[in-house]
Every structure is written in C-alpha cells, then in structure tokens.
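From the methods appendix. Each design record in this collection lists the tokenized structure first, followed by the designed amino acid sequence. Records were kept in a plain field format so they could be parsed without special tools. The example shown here is representative of the layout used throughout.

RECORD:
FOLD TOKENS (267 positions):
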C-alpha cells in the first residue's frame, strides 16, 4: 500500500514501528470500510425481505436525539424514524390514539392519564428528574447563590418566550403549574418569540427560567449565564419514556433511548 500511494504509513526506529500521521488517516478509512461492510452483511443476511416500517417518536426538541437516531438507522436501515415535537400532554394523547409509538412526557401529564395508559399496557420508564433553574448574568446580584426560592423573585423582570404549546416542548406549562402550586406570581416583562429567543437569549442581561434538559443541550450558554437552582419543592419534573411494547422494533429503539438518557443524567 505504501508503494501504491508513494508514501509511508509507519515510523520505523530500529526494530520498533508505529503509525505516523498518514497511517492514522489510513486506519480511519479502513475502520469506516469495515464498519460499512459489517452493516451491509447485517442488512442482507437478516433484513432484505423485511418491509420498511416507521417509528413515530415524540421527541424532546432542540435536535437532541439526531445523532442517536442516525446511528440507530444505520444499524436498522429497514426502519424509519419520524420525529414530532409536541407538548408533553399532546404526546400522551398521540400515544393513546396510536398516532405515536414512543414519547417523552412528565409525571404531571402521566398522572392525568394513568387509567388509559394501564388499559393499553403502555410501558412507562422513569428517565431523569428535570430541575428548574433561573438563568442570570454573571454580574447579577443572584450570581453567587446556589439556589433560590421563587418568592424572592416576585419583583424581578423575566423573559417570557412565546410559542404554540402543542408544537413545542417548553418549560411554560411546567412554570405555570409551579407558580400555581407555590402561589407565586412572576413578572414576565419581556416577550420574545421562539426563534429570536433561541438565537439571542443567552446574550441578553434579562432573567429567564430554564431546566436541566435545555442546559445540558445548550452547553455554550454556561459561558454567558449562571444557573441557580429553584429551591421550591415543586420545582422539578419527573421525565418518562412511554411506548407500545408489543412492537419489537419500538422496544429496541426505546431501550437505546432509555440507556442514552440514563447515562446522561445518572448523576
């Protein structure tokens, strides 16, 4: 191969040999070739007669699962995954109506539909506790705190993010529930639409409420904001994955999703 490409792939010192830069690049190409060959064998040995089918996933938004889905589809090329980004309550409705196969939702939504979920034998697995935080600029008077009670924030001005709740996973329903449960009235003085907020919110001096899920996705935001935990007892969501277990393809994908989120939030 060295003769063919007129270059060397190893550093040779006496009786010792090791890969050089060219050799490292060659190895990456070889690994890709072998992985594709293995996937080709897997497909044609087990799946060439299988009909293509789709899994409808109510995801968590923000393209959080895109890499995982791509990896899954390379291994199971006869499957398709269609993503729907909807509110937690809407996702449960879709699952019960068999308009979705796998969903993510919270304990508040599950509690409203316990009987229907049980009747349909829908699998429910707890994934992680989604905690609420206030995001403040590094020079804020709150920046040195580790946690704070919502009652201390009633006179502060917050950003409100507008968006259709049935079509987007947001913390708004959770915050509404929390304020009612804790009898707190927050002052949402600034109103951003969804697209503007995602592009500019980190760089503004305004306060806003976020959660573990969004903070873990927008890792760069930690450069611009300090996140302080909301200490109120109701300031959390238990996030679950729910799915129809009778479909083996759905169960396989659900198991992969469960492992991914348990690894991310195991601490």
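DESIGN:
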């Amino acid at each position: 191969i060295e003769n063919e490409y007129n270059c060397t792939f190893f550093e040779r010192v006496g009786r010792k040999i090791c890969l050089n830069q060219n050799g490292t690049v060659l190895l990456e190409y070889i690994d890709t070739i072998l992985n594709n060959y293995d996937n080709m064998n897997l497909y044609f040995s087990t799946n060439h007669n299988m009909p293509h089918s789709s899994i409808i996933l109510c995801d968590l938004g923000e393209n959080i699962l895109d890499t995982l889905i791509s990896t899954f589809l390379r291994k199971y090329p006869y499957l398709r995954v269609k993503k729907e980004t909807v509110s937690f309550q809407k996702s449960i409705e879709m699952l019960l109506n068999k308009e979705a196969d796998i969903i993510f939702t919270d304990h508040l939504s599950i509690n409203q539909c316990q009987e229907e979920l049980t009747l349909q034998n829908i699998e429910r697995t707890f994934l992680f506790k989604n905690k609420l935080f206030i995001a403040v600029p590094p020079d804020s008077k709150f920046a040195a705190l580790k946690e704070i009670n919502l009652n201390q924030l009633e006179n502060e001005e917050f950003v409100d993010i507008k968006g259709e709740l049935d079509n987007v996973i947001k913390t708004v329903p959770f915050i509404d529930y929390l304020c009612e449960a804790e009898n707190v009235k927050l002052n949402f003085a600034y109103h951003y639409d969804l697209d503007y907020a995602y592009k500019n919110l980190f760089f503004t001096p305004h306060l806003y409420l976020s959660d573990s899920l969004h903070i873990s996705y927008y890792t760069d935001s930690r450069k611009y904001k300090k996140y302080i935990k909301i200490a109120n007892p109701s300031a959390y969501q238990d996030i679950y994955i729910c799915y129809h277990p009778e479909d083996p393809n759905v169960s396989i994908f659900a198991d992969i999703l469960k492992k991914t989120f348990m690894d991310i939030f195991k601490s």
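APPENDIX NOTE: The chain is about 40% helix and 25% strand.
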